[in-house]
């Protein structure tokens, strides 16, 4: 009997010591709603998530023209368990002939599993040889340490000249050539 008690006591002590290193938690799968046990992640509202507050960010630009205000779409997908609000900031990494206007497009709320779009406006002031790079930084208001970035890269070949960018000599040549061809016809 004494051996049995010693075995039980040692077994309990062993389980208590080992249990924290193999800690698992059980909650429901967010897609199938079946109970499962996990080694990583968090249990939020009784559902498993990698993080309770989490999101993804990506961007897509529009057709850019010199002097033409163009919205750049910054997409935010809330992949966490709770609704969250996000703030948008930007930094121009390369280039100097660009204006970024985020007024009215710097804060948005997104429900869980929802996707919303912020549309800051980009204005290219003049043709440049070097590409323009703008980094958009999106941060969570619920978790101040959680942020994601996306970079928009605008190459010099991606946008067309506007009329004000044509050299005066080239404009005069086009008018003269058009006049010559018009008189021959």
From TrEMBL:
Protein name: CARDB domain-containing protein
Domain of life: Bacteria
Stretches that traverse the bilayer: 159-182
Keyword terms: Membrane, Transmembrane, Transmembrane helix
